[in-house]
Automatic annotation (TrEMBL):
Organism annotation: Companilactobacillus zhachilii
Pfam families reported for this sequence: Nitroreductase (PF00881)
SUPFAM superfamilies attached to this UniProt entry: FMN-dependent nitroreductase-like
Family recorded in the similarity comment: Belongs to the nitroreductase family.
Residue ranges of the TM segments: none
UniProt superkingdom: Bacteria
Keywords of this entry: Oxidoreductase
PANTHER family: NAD(P)H NITROREDUCTASE YDGI-RELATED, NADH DEHYDROGENASE_NAD(P)H NITROREDUCTASE XCC3605-RELATED
The protein's name: Nitroreductase
GO molecular function (one): oxidoreductase activity
C-alpha cells in the first residue's frame, strides 16, 4: 500500500476476529516503529506483547474487576470530560452522537460498545507500550509517534488496530502478567489483529474542517 492509502485506511477496529497474528509480523511492525523520532534519540518506548494464555488471563482479571465494579486507575490520570476545553469537548460529543446514529438507537450502540470494551475488543494481541517513570513530558510526544508508526505499519500488512485506554485501566494486572517493572509507566494498549466483518467496524470517525485546524501565516 502507498503511504496515503495506509493513513486513510487506518481506523480504530473495536471487534477483532480470532485469526491469529504471526509473531514475525509483530516483530517487523515494532522494528519499523523503532524508526520513529524521539527527543535526542532517547527512544523511551518498550513494548509488552500480550498473546495466547497470558492475554486470556489479563481479560479474565479485567472481567473480574469490572464485575466487582472496581474503579479504573490507569498510570496516566484521566481528566473528567467536563474539564476539557470547549473545542475538544465538542469533538468528543460529536463522536458519541455519530456512534449512536451508526446503530439503530442508543441502547444498541451502548450494548455493542460495552460488549467490545468488556472483552478488550476480542483482540488476539495487545501491545502494551511503556516509558520510564523518570521521563520528560516530551517523551509522551515520542510515544505518540511510536504508536502511530505501529498502527500504520500494521495497516500496511493488512492488520487492524485500536489504541486503547480501556486495556490499561488496571496496571497491576498488566505488571503481574507481563512482568512490567514498577519504574515503567504503562502508557497505552494497542490492540492488534484482523477486523471481524461486523457493523461496529464500519464506523468511520470524522475530522474538523481543515480551516479550523490549520493557520498559515505569510
Ligand atoms: C490514547 C487513546 C486512547 C483510546 N482509548 C479508547 C478506548 O478506550 N475505547 C475506544 O473505543 N476507543 C479508544 N480510542 C480510539 C479513539 O476513539 C479513536 O482513535 C478516535 O475516535 C478516532 O477514530 P479512528 O481511530 O477510527 O480514526 C483511543 C484513542 C487514543 C488515541
Amino acid at each position: 500500500m502507498d503511504l496515503i492509502e495506509v493513513v486513510k485506511k487506518r481506523h480504530s477496529v473495536r471487534h477483532f476476529s480470532q485469526k491469529s497474528v504471526a509473531t514475525s509480523d509483530i516483530k517487523e511492525i515494532i522494528k519499523l516503529a523503532q524508526l520513529a523520532p524521539s527527543w535526542v534519540n532517547s527512544q523511551p518506548w518498550k513494548v509488552y506483547a500480550a498473546t495466547g494464555k497470558t492475554l486470556e488471563q489479563i481479560k479474565a482479571d479485567y472481567e473480574q474487576k469490572d464485575h466487582l465494579n472496581e474503579k479504573s486507575h490507569p498510570d496516566f490520570p484521566v481528566m473528567h470530560r467536563d474539564d476539557w476545553n470547549n473545542r475538544t469537548q465538542a469533538n468528543m460529543k460529536q463522536w458519541r452522537h455519530e456512534i449512536v446514529h451508526h446503530f439503530a438507537d442508543f441502547d444498541e450502540a451502548h450494548h455493542i460498545m460495552s460488549d467490545a470494551s468488556e472483552h478488550l475488543n476480542y483482540a488476539p494481541v495487545i501491545l502494551f507500550l511503556t516509558m520510564p517513570k523518570d521521563s520528560s513530558l516530551w517523551s509522551v510526544f515520542d510515544m505518540g509517534s511510536f504508536g502511530q508508526t505501529i498502527m500504520l505499519a500494521a495497516k500496511d500488512k493488512g492488520l487492524d488496530t485500536i489504541p486503547n485506554y480501556n486495556s490499561v485501566r488496571f496496571p497491576e494486572v498488566l505488571r503481574k502478567q507481563l512482568d512490567i517493572p514498577e519504574d515503567e509507566t504503562i502508557v497505552v494498549g494497542i490492540s492488534l489483529g484482523y477486523a471481524e466483518d461486523i457493523k461496529i467496524n464500519t464506523y468511520q470517525s470524522k475530522r474538523e474542517p481543515l480551516e479550523d485546524v490549520l493557520k498559515i501565516s505569510k
